[in-house]
Amino acid sequence: MTIVQFLIVSAALFSFGLYGVITRRNAVLVLASVELMLAAVNINFVAFDVYLGDTTHAGQIFSLFIIALAAAEVGIGIAIILMIYRNRQSANVDELDSMKG
Amino acid sequence: MTVTIGDFFRETANWAFLAIAIPTLLAGWRTVTSNNIVRAVLYLVISLAGSAALFFMLGAEFVGWTVVLVYIGAVIILFLIGIMITRAPLGQEAELSHPRSVRAPAALLSTVMFGVITWAMVDAFGSNAIEPFEPTVTSDLSFLIFDRFVIPFEVVSFVLLAALIGGIALARKDDGEGQR
Amino acid sequence: MTSMTNLFNQLILATEEVVHTSEEAEHAVEAGITSGPLVEWAWLIVVVPLVAAFLIMFFGKKMPWKGWEIAWGAIAFVGVYGTVLFVLNATQGVLYEGTVEIATIGTNILGEPFVLEWGWMVDGLSIMMYFLVGVVGTLVFTYAKGYMKGDIRFTWFFVSFSLFAGGMLVLVSAPNLIQLIVGWELVGVSSYLLIAHYWEDFDNVDAGNKAFMVNKVADAALFLGAIIMAVSVGSFNFETILDVVVEGHEGPLSQYAFWAGLLLFIGAMGKSAQFPLHVWLPDAMAGPTPVSALMHAATMVTAGVFLLGRLFPFYLDVSGLFAGDVRDIIIVIGGITLFFTGLIALVQDDIKKVLAYSTVSQLGYMIAAMGAGAYTAGLFHLFTHAFFKALLFLGAGSVIHAVHSNNMSDMGGLRKKMPITFWTFIIGTFALIGVFPFAGFFSKDEILASIKYAGGDGGQDIANLILVLGILGAFVTAFYMTRAVALTFFGEYKGEAHPHESPKSMAYPLIGLAFFAVVAGWVNIPGVYTGFTDWLATRSPSTTFDLHHAETFDWAVVAASTMLVIAAVVIGWMIYGKDAGTQKERDRVRIPVLWPLLENLYYIDDFYMKGIVRPIMGPIARVILWFDMRVVDGVVNGVGLGAKGLASGVQVIDAEVVDGVYNVTAAGTSASGDVLRRSFTGRVQQYAAFSFVGVIVIVVLFVIF
Q1: Which of A31, C287, C530, C704 makes a 20 to 30 Å CA pair with C457?
Q2: Do C681 and A97 touch (CB under 8 A)?
Q3: Which H helix or E strand runs over C292?
Q4: Angle in degrees, CA C436, C441, C445, rounded to 5
């Protein structure tokens, strides 16, 4: 197994996630795309960790942290989306442009 | 040790790798392009599962299982709850993506991003192979967390605490706020 | 018997010796005191009254006697110091010139640096003046305390009076022409201030202006003369100038001597009220009587005579190179003045005007004497005149104070009610008209004798004519004074007030001055004692000062003048004594043509007013006003308009160009802001997209480089 194959997978997933962040209208799906990007980054970290034979396993540990933070972030994100939905009766990000101008 | 394309396909592990990677990528693709919101989230599940499998391939068992537990077990649930509570349009008729005027440039951007990263990687690592390895010992990981990485661990704990409190604060209904 | 013969012989010898020594006409006088604290500190004489003036100005109102004590203290100081110097000069001779250099400016005609000095002369001439100003001044100041009592400007009066005293002392102590001119102007200013003391009445203000203006005309000549003299010699200092004269060599001074002398004399004419510049003095009687007594009788008006005395060698002109020719003009002017103004005194009703014209006339005598080359005679008369004229004025003031009127038609019969005033006035009158042994007898006869001598063989021919005028003038003087005395003190009292004798502060000075009016003449009795001559001659350069010094009486002159005086008194008494002051008396004497001419003052004042003043105030002033408004103001307005135009031009530039830059910049910023603002869509995804674009770029750059 080469390292590059994992990196390509990671890159591709990251690009998909980026596409999703920019493209998606629904706030929840935007959050999902962000999750995708984070997953891709995780793959990257762990692949390098193994490739480098790191005895401190910094890559794996860091990816654990990423997972934890991603979970926290999603929790907050969903809460915020729920609040916005309460105020505007819609989860459409198009309408969240009051910072315009 | 450099590996050529032929060597790639001769190795059994690589076939397994392909068998896992391709569904992952497909699922990822479908996540961001599906018109059905529930399906998009479920495709995300498949993608995440695939990434966990890849972790297992790399010997990072603990990380893999953590992904399964946390991501697939909790995060996806949150997504589904979110979808349900915000009464997202269910079914096929929803337009979940921006019109083409936005999608095209986004696609271009993504492609460019992918190209740049890939090219950088290939340029840097080319055909380097991963040396044979033992699966990661979980107790090593735990030792490292509480020894070497204790500060980031604590920081993450605080962040989770903050997130928890923030969530409660956000979700709480203040007096008179509901009427506005 | 032998002892008596011896005594008698000794007496004759003594007399001969006395007579013999006084026969010396020309002699130099050596000075005994030329240094020492008494002369070195003599500048105090000048400074103390000036300082007093300032002190009174600031502190006078708060003092118990409203500043009078400061003034009197100052003038008494001058009197004491002056008397001391006078006595010393009489016994030993004092000659000193103290100077303080003020500045050195450029170079003079001789190529030397021109030094500006302030100084104090202490020689015979100055000491005489110090004595006069001090003694007469003290008595007048004493008198003024009573006379000016209750006046609302009491304090300011003494400020001006002290200023006058200081200015006069500056004048007489001057060692150079510049300081003399400074003093000249100072007394002119104080005269103006004091004449117009009662300025609520505009006539008094006009009188002050008239005095000032007429003096100014003369001062122009004075300045010119002084400049010519100083530039020719290279210095303003009197000693330097007179040294040039005494050495008698030809030079720039001798070239211009006539003009310098003439111009300086015209300046003297103004201050000493000679015809035709005499017109201001009678009007100056509008001032308070102490002013008239001190300034316009005793001291200020004598400044002109003093100037001629100071420059006497220049006019005496022994060598013939200098201003000797001017003396003809001087003597003629003096003669005209003494006679014709004396005539005017005959028709005046105001007692002060009588005395004013009398003063002008007596000044004419002094000037005539100077013109005749009689240094001692002219100054001797100045000396005696100061005392008796001041006495007469103060007496007149006493009378005026009592009857509250200046006019003799409101007076009469006052000799019983005001005895001190009456008797002192009589003494003053006798002194004035020249009755033996009072003061004026000696001084006036000396003048007449000098004029006669000057007209003698080889001298001034015109002097003979002037002598006739002088002798006739004695008649006129006696005549108008008899009239004045008769109208004032004899007959019935015609006024409404209740006259009484003046208070002590006014009576005592009268007695003091009367004393001097009696004795002052005894210091220069030809043939007996002529100390005064020597005292005056203590000067530098100490050479011949008199063409002729009377060693003995000129009995012809004495006889002629005395007879005329007696005749005048008798005739005057006959005309004015009986029914004094009634309308009958006035009609009796009215000589048809002469009287209107006299009453209108020879129409000179009218000529000045209509011929000179009115045209200047009228047409000439209008022309100058037109010029000022059109041309001068035109330039000013033009500059103003130009500035205004320039300002509006600048304003345009400011609004358009400068502001334009700002406006363009602001508009540009605003426009670009509008453009850039479109990127702020508020859509987060767009922001994310753009940041990733940035990331890619950075990565690429990172990788490449």
Answers
A1: C530
A2: yes
A3: helix C289-293
A4: 130
- Residue C220 CA to chain centroid, in angstroms? 15
The whole-angstrom separation of Cα B81 and Cα B77 is 6
Q: What type of residue is B119?
A: W
Interface touch A96/C684, C-beta < 8 Å: yes
CA-CA-CA-CA torsion sign (C163, C168, C174, C179): positive
Specify the 3-state DSSP secondary structure of B172.
coil
Q: Please state the rounded mean pLDDT for residues C627-642.
A: 80
Residue C520 Rama label (left phi>0; alpha psi -120 to 50; beta): alpha
Which residues of chain C are within 8 Å of residue B109 when distances are taken between CB atoms? Answer: 689, 692-693, 696
| Radius of gyration, CA atoms only, chain B | 21
Any residues with CB less than 8 A from the CB of C15 and at least 6 apart, and which? none
Q: What are phi and psi of A53, to 5 degrees?
A: 65, 40
Using one digit for the tens of pLDDT, what is the confidence trace for C233-249?
A: 878 888 888 888 887 77
**Cβ <8 Å between C683 and A97:** yes
pLDDT over threshold 80, residue C550: no
Q: DSSP secondary structure string, C179-203? A: HHHHHHHHHHHHHHHHHGGGTTSHH
Q: 10 Å Cβ neighbour count for C23?
A: 12
Distance CA C433, CA C473 (A): 10
CA distances from residue C509 to C289, C325, C346 in whole angstroms, order as listed: 13, 43, 28
Which of C:625-684 have CB within 8 Å of A? 677, 680-684
Residue C35 makes CB contacts below 8 A (sequence gap 6+) with: C96
B123 inside 8 A of chain C by CB: yes
Residues paired with residue C119 on neighbouring β-strands, in sequence order:
C99
Of B121, B71, C672, give the one whose Cα is nearest residue A39: B71
Residue C458: pLDDT band by 50, 70, 90 thresholds?
A: low
HSE-up (13 A, CA, CB side) for residue A7: 23
Instruction: List Cβ neighbours of B158 (8 Å cut-off, separation of 6 or more).
Output: none
Which residue of chain A is at minimal alpha-carbon distance from C688?
A22
Q: Do B54 and A73 touch (CB under 8 A)?
A: no
pLDDT digits (tens, 9 = 90+) for B91-103: 555 677 888 888 8
**pLDDT above 90 coverage of chain C, percent:** 23
B105 contact residues in C (CB cutoff 8 A)? 689
Among B21-25, B125-129, C49-53, C495-499, the range scoring the smallest mean pLDDT is: C495-499
Over C393-412, what HEC string results?
A: HHHHHHHHHHHCCCEHHHCC
CA dihedral C68, C74, C78, C80 (to 10 degrees): 80
CA–CA–CA angle C546, C547, C552 (5° rounding):
85
Q: What DSSP element (H or E) covers C105?
A: strand C96-107
Helix axes B76-85, A27-52, angle to 10 degrees: 170
Cα→Cα distances C294→C49, C149, C394, C599, Å:
15, 18, 9, 26
Choose between A29 and C614: higher pLDDT.
A29
Torsion angle of the four alpha carbons A68, A69, A71, A72, in this order, in degrees rounded to the nearest 10? 120
Among residues C698, C43, C528, which one has the least CA distance to residue B120?
C698
Q: What's the Cα-to-Cα distance from C227 to each of C106, C175, C310, rounded to whole Å?
A: 16, 15, 16
Best of A6, A7, A13 to mutate (most B CBs within 10 Å, chain B) = A13
Q: Taking CA C590 as the corner, what is the angle to CA C588 and CA C595, rounded to the nearest 5 degrees?
A: 165
Which residue in C687, C691, C693 has the most chain B C-beta atoms within 10 A of its own C-beta, making it the best mutation to test that interface?
A: C693
Helix (H, G, I), strand (E, B) or coil at C98: strand
CB C293 within 8 A of CB C394: yes
How far the first Cα of chain C sits from its last, in Å, is 158
Query: In whole angstroms, what is the distance from residue C308 CA to residue C294 CA?
Result: 20
